[in-house]
Please model this.
Amino acid sequence: MLHEATISTLQDMRLYGMAQGFQNRAGTPQHAELSHADFVGLLAQDEKTYRENVRLKRLLLNAKLRQQAALEDIDYRHPRGLTKQAIAELSNPQWIGAHRNVLITGPTGIGKSYIACALGNLAARGGYTVLYTRAPRMFESLHQARGDGSHLKALLRLGKVQLLVIDDLLVTPLAESERRDLLEIVEDRYATTSTVISSQCPLKEWHQAIGDPTIADAICDRLFHNAYRIAL
Model:
């Protein structure tokens, strides 16, 4: 009964990790020999692990990644211009803290989205907030936001997330409103957050595909500066 009361008290205090840990450990021979301090230390670690797992689940849920992808599962057997060295460098999430971008280009079906989602997964596991979006859907949502008065709020959300993953950018040349929205997003994120972009369009053609030369200069300058470039 004493154990049940302790577990109930921990749950009432929302110490769910400690409650589960206490239930699993109490009464087992290997833990009966521990000092009180060591036993409490294990329960504290149980609570820390529980909270980290809850946060990770929340980050992954909010990220809305298109694929369940991981850098560890990338296939290098087929040559496509992707090196283990490049991925190894990106496997350290320090590039996110340094606010660097990753630009992935190549033809359809070659794995751009998988790599982009794997980088998003890496960021979430590192404790960063992540949001995945396909460029056509993003621009459509921003267009609708203009009509209901939530356009600025939508831009702010895209601007503040620590890692924004934009998939399928420049599938078609940008319309006037789209390139202005993209400029606002890139400007808000410049040197403060990181962005991963995948595109079928080679980097050398981005300027033309964006359209307006002045806006294209600003967008490309901010995206290309200090960016990792993966051409598949």
The CA atoms of residues 46 and 108 lie 44 Å apart.
